[in-house]
Amino acid sequence: MAWRVTVPELQDQLQCPICLEVFKEPLMLQCGHSYCKDCLDSLSQHLDSELRCPVCRQWVDCSSSPPNVSLARVIDALRLPGDTEPTVCVHHRNPLSLFCEKDQEFICGLCGLLGSHQHHRVTPVSTVYSRMKEELAGRLSELQEERRKVEEHIGKLVNNRTRIINESDVFSWVIRREFQELHHLVDEEKARCLEGVEGHTRGLVASLDMQLEQAQGAQERLTQAEQVLEQFGNESHHEFIRKFHSMASR
């Protein structure tokens, strides 16, 4: 016939009500409910030999609880090779199958029922593990998103750096070319100005040279006339008077 439950669902039904782990050496009470041998031993050490079943609250005798052989065989058939037992509680020697949300530490089922964690919020380790795995996945997703944003920012910075360097090279080339053209224009204007000054200077100098030449000619003629007059002044009275009018007109 077909199975009506899956193996994981069946495994959930095979958990001890005290430690919330799969039964280990299960013992069956008179009421029909089963518990791990270590869980019942630890529970009986803290209570009387007759106690109430934690599930149905009937009075039972722990000392006359036989092993649940059929249940143990089913568990052995479901157990995978290499499964390791969880760490046990140092107080009750039961598996640390629960997690105290308040104290943030692993506890066993008896710690949650009888110990200092009795009124604390406790959660099965498997549930806490799944919850923390989901939280870790969320944190990892957030980190990956932040890393993606940082990588995009780095890419923009690299692109901006490359763009600025390229633009700087273009601007430098344009500036050098413009200044070269300015230098060429300045050199042409300088040559034109120098040529104009030199041409103007040559014209003035030529004019002055001509005037100087004329003045020197006049100076020479005046010197000659002065010498003639000085010689004329040495003439005798009669000669001086006789030649004076012709000399003066000259």
TrEMBL record:
Give start-end ranges for the coiled-coil region(s): 133-160, 205-235
Any one Pfam family match given in the protein's UniProt record, by short name? zf-B_box
The protein's UniProt keywords, in alphabetical order, are: Coiled coil, Metal-binding, Zinc, Zinc-finger
The residue ranges of the RING-type domain are 16-57
Q: By its UniProt entry, which Gene3D superfamilies does this protein fall under?
A: Classic Zinc Finger (3.30.160.60), Zinc/RING finger domain, C3HC4 (zinc finger) (3.30.40.10)
Domain named B box-type: residues = 84-125
Annotated signal sequence is none
Official protein name in the record: E3 ubiquitin-protein ligase TRIM50
